[in-house]
Amino acid sequence: MKKLIIVFAAALFAATGFAQDITECHTPALDKFAMFASNKEFNRAHLNPRVYVHISEEGGKMMKFKTPDGKEANGYLIEAKKKTNNWVLVFQEWWGLNDNIKATAESIYKDLGNVNILAVDMYDGKLATDRETAGKYMGEFKAERGESIMKGAIAHAGPAAKIGTVGWCFGGGLSMQASLLAGKQAAACVIYYGMPEGNVEKLKTLNADVLDIFAAKDKWINQEVTTKFENDMKAAGKNLTVKKYDADHGFANPSNAIYDKAAMEDAYKNTIEFFKTRLK
């Protein structure tokens, strides 16, 4: 998780003109993440989300699960109608586990069929409705706690679970890290405009195939970041599928002012197909 924070911050600051090489300095990882969260250009690019209310039609409910640090975490769980070891862990944007993420989790549940869905609350109950608060919460994010939450979610799915992961922006990077933490249980990883893992040796431990979805107009998770990820995955001997859309960062969020319906629908179709062929 510390590596995720360092690499994510480095790429974003490089893309926005910061000359400091924060991958080499000795600033603690969480401080670097706080610096990234306070990046004014990045914050301005995230318009406040529209009001969006989700009412579950599939029995989705908030629940708690244990984490290895001795605490509990929150999740939005939709259980399969018939017992199955297929699971998808869903990771939030920087806003938190809001109704948009819950609605997306329910859509995935409906379209995949017999699967358990757990949308993971990485903010321990905090929810942002404006970009200033979202930046604050993401800046306060503790790497150790985040890893413990992900490990708790994987443990809740159980040792026999076959796990897929998906996330957007902040959650895209978490989707990658969760698949790495899941080890041999990981079956499929989907990243929407999120920072991929940049350590080839760590990627060699990845069991899941990866679908990387990014936006051509994205100033942060851009072509340079994606090309490096392609090269890293090739060097690690892992399977990667890249889908590029003529859209901007955050295009798949219906509550986002820059929502691109056509791009979202195609990306979502590819996501479902990707999961279906790997969660059998």
Describe, in short, the structure shown:
The chain has ten helices and eight strands. The chain has about 280 residues and is of the alpha/beta class.
CATH architecture: 3-Layer(aba) Sandwich
Helix content bin: 40-55%
Uncertain runs with pLDDT below 50, 5 residues or more? 1-35
Largest sheet, strands/sense/barrel: 8 strands, mixed
CATH class, please?
Alpha Beta
Class by alpha and beta content: alpha/beta
How big is the Rg? 17 Å
Strand order, main sheet: write it out. Answer: 1-2-4-3-5-6-7-8
Question: Which of globular, elongated, flat, extended, rod-shaped describes the shape?
Answer: globular
Assembly state of the chains shown:
single chain
Layout: helices, strands, pairs:
Layout: H1 2-15, H2 29-37, H3 40-45, E1 61-66, E2 72-78, E3 86-91, H4 99-112, E4 116-120, H5 131-140, H6 143-157, E5 162-168, H7 170-181, E6 186-192, H8 200-203, E7 209-215, H9 223-236, E8 240-245, H10 261-276
Parallel strand pairs: 3-4, 3-5, 5-6, 6-7, 7-8
Antiparallel strand pairs: 1-2, 2-4
Helix pairs in contact: 1-2, 2-5, 6-7
